[in-house]
Design brief:
The structure holds 2 protein chains of 2 kinds.
Chain A (H helix, E strand, L loop, with lengths): L4 E11 L5 E10 L3 E5 L6 H9 L6 E6 L2 E2 L10 E4 L11 H11 L4 H14 L15 H14 L4 E5 L7 H18 L2 E6 L2 H7 L2 E6 L2 E6 L1 H6 L4 H6 L4 E4 L3 E5 L4 E5 L5 E10 L3 E8 L2 E8 H4 L7 E6 L3 E4 L6
Parallel strand pairs in A: 3-8, 3-9, 6-7, 7-8
Antiparallel strand pairs in A: 1-2, 1-4, 4-5, 9-10, 11-12, 12-18, 13-17, 14-15, 14-17, 15-16
Helix pairs in contact in A: 2-3, 2-4, 3-4
Chain B lengths: L5 H33 L11 H8 L1 H34 L3 H9 L8 H12 L4 H8 L12 H25 L3 H9 L4 H29 L3 H6 L7 H11 L3 H27 L8
Helix pairs in contact in B: 1-12, 2-12, 3-7, 3-9, 7-9, 8-9, 9-12, 11-12
Classes of the chains: A alpha+beta, B mainly alpha.
Chain lengths: 327, 283
């Protein structure tokens, strides 16, 4: 990843008739960076992606790629390429024809076209599939071809709109790894949209956490996980316990909760249940502040029994003022 | 599966019998009867092809066939082209007007044919609404649409555009936006998107709409009877004339068979396009 800014969004606003949309968006994406727009559905992440791709016109502000404004261009003239959640491939064309279509429009000679397509199929490990139609392939294979088709056109910025959310969990994590590998190997700039925080954490160089059309926090996965700037981000990324006090909210991650037998910790409570979740266990504790969740290692989990009186202390926590809890 | 006993077979036969007998009585028997009649010879001596020969050699009969085909082909082409444009507009434009048209375009399907034909006559005849409006401006505009092919074709379009639009709109709605957007994304301009994506993906349904429009118009009766002239006449009117006015049952029978064959050409096209699944359409 270089220091050069590949994509820049300046003061962009796009509102729909019902006043939903995004307001005053500013974002700089470096060359070779994979940035994720993360947020619940309706937060405007897809809107931003579609305005970059040219499928929506922004009301104001500008979008620059390599410092050239592109917001006035139609999708076919933009140096971007988009992959949607599904139905990306043209159903009446084979894999080969799907991949050749964009190259033909660019008037690339047949032999060169063939060479590039075969090379790309090899890269995405789909050699031998060129004569298949989309409906003869699995969802994962279709998305892989859709991404390959986009990469073939060497876009300046690759836009991915929840490309893996229609796939099942196992394929999804496999595709994620592969995408990350291509992206680093080919040094492509990617804007990735997802509502899946786990996916965002796993893939991204930086995450943009969005809420109701605005950015709440931009940072590396570790940044947004360890130092969420507000209660919204704290709640959206990872597991978090919230303890409501008179003037503030304490947010603490389950792995930062220590359970003590006896009264050493500050907060008293009773064990409610323990649940083994693989290499760690989740222990829920009833306190006067509500239920608090703690992660403990498996060896320690069987020393706590439901109904037992314990106390809790926190190794690390965040405090948020009640005033900005409105969000 | 259990082996069927003769009792179950008998039961099945008994259940099918009523509809089978009814079909035989009102469809199969008249068809056979018509075919047999059409091959009868005029002197009653046996079977011959003379009525068929007449249909394809007699000047008036041939004239009627070409007249009918001309009207039907213009109707099919006209209604498919207009419907396709309308369907494209309805599918890809999101405005109040397109929504309004989207809810209204099927209305003509709900108007009885005869009512619609007479309503149209009051507008297009040489002393009709158009003429009266022109007179307000001191002109004397005579549309000249009555008693000729133009009037029939106009009326046919009126009936068939909503129908064909309905089929094509359904077909275009089945094309996901992402298919079109990804085509534009890789650099396809609007015309390219149309010819490479939209048209191939809706082609089959266009063919189906065409065959339906063709079949219903080749045997049309009401419209040509009310709006059409005296010569040439469309096959439906010609058939009725031979049957009711001249009591020429053999010729009428032969005409029915010929009309049936014309329709079956498009029926074959329909069945062929429906059965022949392209590789990409198979699930």
């Amino acid at each position: 990843m270089g220091e050069k800014i590949k994509l820049e969004i300046r003061n962009m606003t796009k509102l729909y008739k019902n006043n939903d949309g995004v307001r005053n968006i500013n974002l700089k994406v470096k060359e070779g960076e994979l940035i994720t727009l993360l947020g619940p559905s309706g937060c405007g992440k897809t809107t931003i992606l579609r305005t970059i791709g040219g499928f929506l016109k922004c009301d104001s502000g500008s979008i620059l790629i390599d410092r050239k404004p592109i917001e006035h261009l139609p999708p076919e003239k933009r140096p971007t390429s988009i992959v949607f959640q599904n139905y990306n491939l043209w159903p009446h064309m084979t894999v080969y024809e799907n991949m050749a279509f964009g190259l033909k429009l660019r008037k690339i000679p047949k032999a060169e076209r063939h060479r590039q397509i075969m090379e790309m199929l090899d890269l995405v490990k789909m050699t031998g599939m060129e004569k298949k139609y989309p409906n003869q392939m699995s969802g994962g294979q279709q998305q892989r071809i859709a991404i390959a088709r986009s990469l073939l056109l060497k876009p300046e910025v690759l836009l991915l709109d929840e490309p893996f959310s229609a796939l099942d969990a196992k394929i999804r994590s496999q595709m994620r790894e592969e995408l990350r590998k291509f992206q680093i190997d080919l040094n492509i700039t990617v804007v990735f949209v997802t509502h899946d925080q786990e996916e965002a954490m796993a893939l991204s160089d930086r995450i943009v956490v969005m809420n109701k059309g605005t950015f709440e926090q931009i940072g590396t996965p570790a940044d947004v996980y360890n130092n969420p700037v507000n209660k919204y981000v704290a709640g959206f990324i990872g597991d978090m316990n919230f303890i409501e006090l008179a003037d503030k909210t304490i947010a603490v991650r389950p792995e930062n909760v220590l359970i003590h037998r006896g009264t050493r910790g500050g907060i008293k409570g009773k064990i409610r249940a323990t649940m083994v979740l693989g290499h760690y266990s989740e222990v829920t504790v009833d306190t006067k502040h509500g239920i608090i969740k703690a992660f403990v290692s498996c060896e320690n989990s069987n020393i706590f029994h439901p109904g037992e009186s314990v106390s809790l202390s926190f190794t690390k926590f965040h405090e948020y003022d009640k005033k900005d809890l409105a969000s | 599966m259990e082996k069927r006993t003769w009792k179950t077979n008998l039961f099945i036969a008994a259940m099918i019998a009523p509809s089978l007998i009814l079909t035989m009585g009102i469809i199969i028997y008249p068809i056979i009867n018509t075919i047999v009649t059409s091959f009868r010879s005029s002197d009653g001596s046996g079977f011959s092809l003379e009525y068929y020969k007449f249909i394809f050699t007699d000047k008036i009969a041939v004239n009627n066939i070409t007249y009918t085909m001309g009207i039907v082909i213009v109707t099919v082409m006209g209604s498919i082209v207009i419907s396709y444009l309308l369907a494209l507009y309805l599918r890809f434009t999101d405005s109040k007007i397109s929504k309004f048209i989207g809810t209204m375009y099927l209305l003509p399907r709900f108007i009885p044919q005869l009512v619609a034909v007479y309503a149209m006559i009051t507008v297009i005849r040489d002393t009709g609404l158009l003429n009266r409006i022109s007179r307000l401006f001191g002109k004397d505009f005579r549309p000249g649409l009555m008693y000729n092919a133009k009037g029939i074709t106009l009326m046919n379009l009126w009936f068939n555009i909503p129908f064909a639009t309905m089929i094509i709109v359904a077909s275009l709605s089945a094309i996901p936006d992402s298919v079109i957007e990804s085509a534009r994304d890789v650099g396809a301009k609007k015309l390219n998107v149309f010819f490479k994506m939209i048209l191939p993906l809706s082609f089959k349904d266009v063919m189906i709409a065409m065959t339906f429009v063709f079949m219903s118009n080749v045997s049309a009766f009401t419209t040509p009877y009310v709006i059409g002239g005296n010569n040439p006449i469309m096959l439906g009117v010609y058939l009725r004339k031979q049957f009711s006015e001249y009591a020429n049952y053999e010729l009428a029978a032969a005409l029915s068979v010929v009309m049936f064959l014309f329709s079956s050409v498009s029926a074959v096209i329909y069945i062929y396009t429906n059965l022949k699944e392209k590789e990409w359409e198979k699930v």
